């Protein structure tokens, strides 16, 4: 199974495929108008089919419109694609022009992904992959056959080749002439996903016969499916909102309820911030154990410590984590001392993946020194105080955790990506 791939706030992962919609306008106004329509749908990603653009050969116009697209999409990831006539597209350009346009887009840094056709040859594909990596742009390597469906062996070999060349995503689209062709494509997808894939794969059988391949990605392993809003860019595309509804129904009825992701660690290691980002990425409910206790008791934790003592709070904490863990599909951010009781650790291990976030004493001090709501650390806390408490809890933290992630000098996105890759 492939590793996850993060694109802005979107993650390509096991499960429900992401819905991508093409923009096929020929003029600037048509392109921007289509984007406004797309933003009103459930589309999660956009593919700009630049081969339909009337000014494709004008580098200034190309750079200008791609900047506008980036701005109008407001955070939706998008793919830049020039589909050549040889692969069923609208572009009749030389390899040099193809190369220059894609390099310009990489340098602009507005597109998240460029689509590079495998049939253009290994040399050109590798040149563009290397250029994209230099500019921190992802690459789909794609292959399209509008006449037939190759054998299962041939299709798997093509996907493996894309992966070996360094693609971030491997894409294959073929034309079925019989229902057996559809089954062959699905079997190739399953084989690649189950036995070979280290990156997300995207496959589809085109036309009416192949429509079901566009909704079965969760079953067979395809990470993206293409729908339409105004004009389809390939035969068999389903309107985006209808496609999303079907995918949701399939997802709801075949998935196992997701296990909890439980964040533990010393105060100031980033549990609250990371939990919010993880919850946003995966659409999972977020629960903060300290906040849960405060809301239930109608009192701040700091006040509980002062009025009743730590033992009283730890009893409440143990009861709270039991109640929280009765549910699934949650990102749970735990108080720093939750690992002090074995019963809490046992309950967490049975009901989720425990992730330890760590940070250096200097980093922790910087994060907590202005916070007066930490019951075990005063406002004049020193680095030595933190070191002592960390050392006291160290064996408990590492004994409880399934994986750990150091949060020093990392963005929230980098931390979340590391967590997901280690869990999956």
Mean pLDDT: 91
Distance between the termini: 9 Å
* Strand line-up of the largest beta sheet: 9-8-7-6-5-4-3-10-11
Helix fraction bin: 40-55%
Uncertain spans: none
Sheet bearing the most strands, described? 9 strands, parallel
Describe the fold and architecture:
This protein has 424 residues and is of the alpha/beta class. Helices cover 46% and strands 18% of the residues. The protein has 16 helices and 16 strands. α2 packs across α3, α5 crosses α6 and α9 crosses α16. It is elongated and about 75 Å long. The model has no long low-confidence stretch (mean pLDDT 91).
Task: Give a short overview.
With 424 residues, the protein is α/β, with parallel strands linked by helices. Helices cover 46% and strands 18% of the residues.
């Amino acid at each position: 199974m492939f590793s996850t791939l993060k694109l802005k706030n979107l993650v390509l992962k096991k499960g429900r495929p992401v819905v991508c919609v093409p923009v096929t306008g020929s003029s600037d106004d048509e392109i921007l108008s289509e984007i406004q329509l797309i933003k009103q749908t459930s589309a999660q990603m956009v593919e700009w089919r630049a081969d339909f653009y009337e000014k494709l050969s004008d580098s200034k116009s190309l750079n200008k419109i791609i900047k506008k697209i980036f701005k109008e999409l407001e955070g939706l990831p998008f793919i830049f694609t020039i589909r050549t006539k040889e692969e069923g597209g609208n572009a009749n350009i030389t390899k040099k022009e193809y190369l220059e346009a894609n390099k310009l887009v990489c340098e602009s840094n507005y597109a998240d992904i460029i689509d590079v056709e495998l049939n253009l040859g290994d040399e050109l594909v590798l040149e563009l992959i290397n250029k994209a990596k230099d500019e921190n742009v992802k690459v789909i390597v794609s292959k399209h056959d509008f006449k037939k469906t190759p054998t299962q062996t041939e299709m798997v070999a093509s996907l493996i080749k894309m992966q070996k060349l360094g693609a971030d995503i491997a894409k294959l689209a073929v034309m079925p002439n019989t229902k057996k062709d559809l089954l062959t494509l699905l079997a190739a997808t399953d084989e690649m996903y189950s036995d070979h894939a280290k990156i997300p794969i995207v496959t589809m059988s085109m036309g009416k016969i192949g429509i079901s391949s566009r909704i079965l990605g969760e079953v067979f392993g395809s990470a993206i499916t293409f729908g339409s809003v105004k004009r389809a860019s390939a035969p068999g595309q389903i309107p985006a909102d209808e496609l999303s509804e079907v995918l949701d129904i399939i997802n709801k009825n075949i998935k196992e309820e997701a296990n909890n992701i439980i964040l533990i660690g010393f105060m100031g290691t980033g549990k609250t911030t990371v939990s919010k980002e993880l919850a946003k990425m995966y659409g999972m409910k977020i629960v903060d154990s300290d906040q849960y206790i405060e809301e239930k008791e109608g009192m701040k934790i700091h006040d509980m410590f002062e009025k009743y003592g730590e033992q009283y709070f730890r009893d409440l904490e143990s009861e709270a984590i039991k109640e929280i863990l009765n549910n699934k599909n949650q990102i749970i951010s735990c108080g720093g001392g939750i690992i002090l009781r074995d019963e809490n650790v046992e309950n967490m291990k049975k009901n989720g993946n425990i992730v330890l976030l760590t940070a250096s004493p200097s980093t922790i001090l910087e994060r907590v020194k202005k916070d007066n709501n930490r019951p075990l650390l005063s406002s004049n806390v020193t680095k030595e105080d933190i070191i002592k408490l960390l050392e006291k809890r160290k064996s408990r933290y590492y004994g409880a955790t399934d994986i750990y992630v150091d949060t020093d000098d990392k963005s929230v996105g980098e931390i979340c990506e590391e967590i997901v890759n280690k869990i999956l």
